[in-house]
Design brief:
The complex is a heterodimer of chains A (325) and B (339). Chain A has helices spanning 6-20, 44-52, 60-72, 91-105, 132-136, 149-161, 211-226, 243-253, 268-280, 302-308, 312-324, and strands spanning 4-5, 24-28, 53-55, 76-80, 112-117, 142-144, 166-171, 179-180, 195-198, 203-207, 230-234, 237-239, 256-263, 289-293. By secondary structure, chain A is of the alpha/beta class. The relative contact order of chain A is 0.12. A 5-stranded parallel β-sheet of chain B has the order 1-2-3-7-6, with helices on both faces. In chain B, strands 4-5 form a two-stranded antiparallel ribbon. Classes of the chains: A alpha/beta (325), B alpha/beta (339).
């Protein structure tokens, strides 16, 4: 089998799920004839037609709301946000309508909202966002953010089959930069389960999405230069969070660094810290540290973006600090 | 219409006895537009509607039961939402209504999606969504009707123009001469009718439903009516010009108008009285049943947020569950506090 990029893995998942289930359909801006801003949906319309691959007006609230209505009736819509930054214009209907539908009105909402996310691509403030913190405190939503091509495919297939709304963030920096051979068959990655990306015994890095790769680089470096054994836990799913895997790695290494690309204040790292504090405080040999973006709207110019976003060298500094504590 | 009005009057009594937990929303004076329009749907074909807060009448036509409504208002554990939501905010796909939320306008894109699914599956079904004059100012209304128009979804959008959105009169809501004019901008058929004439309401909606069912796409209907009570029961309507409410009550009550019409035709007073008696009996039964119903078990609050997991874990401080911060779970190497 040949290697498949992260982007191709997403596309494979869409083709396979649309083949498998007539109820699966896609809707979004420029996804049909054009194939999407990043060509994720290229070829879908040719195969499945304009009925199942719907080019919509520029209306994120309508895309998400219509998906919810169709999902109530048994369809399995997959919405594309052209850039995930635009999910904010659908925030009301997503958090107030979709997230509460099952609980308040027994209305199922099996749907996916996916879109290119994240920075390191010189996209500026409105084409680089990481939206996870805005949805982390919304009960009723699930949220995944894959780091590998294999998980990109497996999580999207699982998300489409899930009975609830799953926000599926795909990292555009990874789209064409990583590739791997994918597992054959009907490859599903379970939602709610983290993955140990690298085994280690001295320090745990808890992270997800693009910073998984930066964390792995940093782990390699401190192993070579400092003899440190660093474990890297790739969360994969942010909602529901895999507490079991988090606590297990804390108990194993007793030192924790949380790394994410999103801004710092009110970020996912704060939530993970609180969970470790409540459930595994006694196992900590050092304070929990965070490497995150600075609290800045993401700037465009390379020296500015590089300065704001977490880099491998930042992770190395934090690992050394933890080791020395 | 009689059932709607009498049921709301009963709810007012219960509200005054503090048996209604939350607010109470009346549709006094608007019963005709709710009931007449809902009758235009075909329940045997599986048509679906999404009501607004003043569409109790539409829900009753669609199959909602008075006992469910009273239980909802009383926040009972065996109400349709098991105490999760208020008043007539609930849905039932079997009977064909989709529960609204408080964010006005949001149901338009949702119903665009419901009817999109009808079109995709080539089903012979139609959707009806109600909005008020106020909701036409929202982005969701615009996005939803525009999307449905482009997709030629079998959707009827009814704007119930009752003059006020909470305290805001139409003149502060829009500079449009009439709300039906908005249909032109969306490229859909627009019609306007007297919302206090139940037959006119039925007829205009029926035309739109037939159009939708035969592939003619979206219709925007403006129904002219008047909200005689406040936004909710607490609202003293101080913003309403003197005499306006009384004038509508005296001259343009939808039930009075329909009763007169029935008597002018072939109906006898006694037949109408028997309808009233049946309504009273049904409401009495609903009230008794709702009053006897239990309040929800508090722990049920944790059930049904997701399909999987079906229930979330209780917070440890609520349930006496020990947290992991417990002597026996400390690592053997840890600390000097034990012993």
């Amino acid at each position: 089998m040949s290697e498949v990029t992260y982007l191709e893995a997403i596309r494979e998942a869409l083709f396979e799920e649309m083949d498998r289930d007539q109820n699966v359909f896609c809707l979004g801006e420029d996804i049909g004839a054009y194939g999407g801003a990043f060509k994720v949906t290229e070829g879908l319309m040719a195969k499945y037609g304009a009925e199942r691959v719907i080019d919509t007006p520029i209306s994120e609230a309508a895309i998400i709301g219509a998906a919810a209505g169709a999902a109530h009736m048994g369809m399995r819509p997959v919405c594309e946000m052209q850039f995930i930054d635009f999910i904010s214009t659908g925030y009301d209907i997503l958090t107030n309508y979709v997230a509460t539908a099952r609980y308040r009105a027994m209305l199922p909402c099996p749907m996916v909202v996916r879109g290119p996310s994240g920075g390191y691509v010189r996209g500026g403030p409105f084409h680089s966002q990481n939206p996870e913190a805005a949805f982390l405190h919304t009960p009723g939503l699930k949220m995944v953010y894959p780091a590998t091509a294999s998980d990109a495919k497996g999580l999207l297939k699982s998300a489409i089959r899930d009975e609830d709304c799953v926000l599926y963030f795909e990292h555009k920096y990874l789209y064409r930069r990583i590739k791997e051979e994918l597992p054959g068959g009907d490859h599903l990655t379970p939602i709610g389960k983290a993955r140990i990306a690298r085994e280690g015994k001295d320090i745990s890095i808890i992270t997800y999405a693009a910073t998984v790769w930066k964390s792995l680089e940093a782990a390699e470096q401190v192993e070579k230069e400092d003899g440190l054994s660093v474990e890297v836990l790739d969360l994969r799913t942010l909602l529901p969070m895999d507490d079991e895997a988090i606590i297990a790695t804390v108990k194993k290494t007793n030192r924790v660094l949380i790394v994410h690309e999103d801004t710092r204040t009110g970020g996912v790292a704060g939530e993970i810290t609180a969970r470790i504090n409540e459930n595994a405080f006694e196992w900590l040999d050092a304070p929990i540290l965070r490497v995150t973006a600075a609290d800045v709207p993401l700037p465009y110019s390379p020296p500015l973006e590089d300065y704001v976003l977490p880099q491998t060298s930042d992770i190395v500094i934090a690992l050394r600090r933890l080791a020395a504590y | 219409m009689r059932l709607t009005r009498s049921l709301e009057e009963r709810l007012v009594n219960l509200y005054r006895q503090t048996k209604v937990v939350g607010g109470l929303f009346r549709s006094l004076g608007q019963e005709a537009d709710a009931v007449g329009s809902a009758y235009a749907l075909d329940r045997s074909k599986g048509d679906v509607l999404s009501p607004l807060i003043r569409n109790l009448g539409s829900m009753l036509v669609q199959g909602a039961k008075p006992t469910e409504i009273v239980k909802q208002y009383m926040a009972k554990g065996d109400s349709p939402t098991r105490g999760r939501e208020l008043n007539i905010h609930y849905g039932d796909l079997v009977r064909g209504f989709v529960g609204q939320i408080s964010h006005l306008g949001d149901m338009v894109p949702v119903m665009a999606g419901v009817t999109l699914s009808f079109k995709m599956r080539k089903q012979d079904r139609v959707g009806l969504v109600y909005v008020g004059d106020g909701a036409t100012s929202t982005g969701a209304f615009h996005e939803g009707i525009n999307f449905a128009a482009v997709q030629r979804c079998p959707l009827v959008v009814i704007v119930e123009n009752n003059g006020y959105a909470y305290s805001t009169p139409l003149s502060k809501q829009t500079a449009a001469r009439q709300l039906v004019d908005k249909a032109i901008g969306y490229g859909v058929v627009g019609e306007r009718a007297d919302g206090n004439d139940v037959i006119a309401t039925y007829e205009v909606t029926k035309r739109a439903v037939d159009r939708a069912r035969s592939g003619g796409g979206v219709t925007l209907i403006e129904l002219m009516t008047y909200r005689r009570k406040g936004h909710a029961e607490h609202d003293n309507q101080s913003y309403v010009p003197a005499g306006e409410i009384d004038r509508w009550a005296a001259e343009n009550d939808p039930i009075d108008r329909y009763v007169k019409r029935l008597l002018d035709e072939e109906f006898e007073e006694s037949e109408l009285a028997s309808v009233d008696a049946r309504v009273k009996e049904e409401i009495d039964r609903a009230t008794d049943e709702a009053e006897a119903s239990p309040m929800p078990d508090p722990r049920d609050a944790l059930v049904g947020i997701y399909a999987d997991p079906p229930e979330i874990s209780p917070l440890w401080f609520r349930e006496g569950i020990k947290s992991a911060v417990d002597v026996h779970e400390r690592p053997s190497s840890w600390g000097t506090h034990d012993v």
